[in-house]
Design brief:
With 138 residues, this protein is mainly beta. The protein has 2 helices and 9 strands. Strands 1-6-7-8-9 form a 5-stranded antiparallel beta sheet, with helices on one face. A hairpin with an 8-residue loop joins β6 and β7.
Length: 138
């Protein structure tokens, strides 16, 4: 299913091609990161020097490359949020995507207005901690 990822603040398209483009901040360093647009694929492309400075378990702050807004969830600060649109939804209302900001912690949740789908081995751990049936509104 093709997804279009958008900034929840300025609504800019963040995957003009096959990768989602974000700005990452860690310990005063900044860099562009390219994430897979396929849910469940946790491959990241980034500057090797930037990636090597991030140890597993450390948090990374993500920002929109267009408006520079932080993508950190206000409800769940360990997660970042994006708006996701699908071609299959005739109303074209955005879905809410939350993904872990912790390096090497693979946990992503997609809420389409009716159901929550989870991706990644760490998602099982968060299904009880993250109130997935709770407040998923913007």
């Amino acid at each position: 299913m093709p997804y279009r990822y958008h900034c929840p603040k300025c609504h800019a398209l963040l995957n003009p091609n096959v990768r989602v483009v974000l700005v990452a901040h860690h310990n005063g360093d900044r860099g562009l990161v390219l994430l897979s647009s396929q849910l469940g694929d946790f491959q990241v492309i980034a500057d090797k020097g930037f990636c090597q400075s991030i140890a597993p378990g450390e948090s990374v702050e993500f920002h929109c490359p267009v408006c520079a807004s932080s993508l950190t969830s206000h409800l769940y600060p360990g997660f970042a949020e994006l708006a996701v649109r699908t071609i299959e939804r005739p109303d074209d209302k955005p879905c809410l995507l939350r993904f872990s900001r912790v390096a090497d912690e693979h946990a992503t949740f997609l809420y389409d207005g009716d159901t929550v789908r989870s991706f990644g081995e760490a998602a099982v751990r968060f299904r009880t901690n993250l109130d997935v049936e709770g407040d998923w509104s913007w």
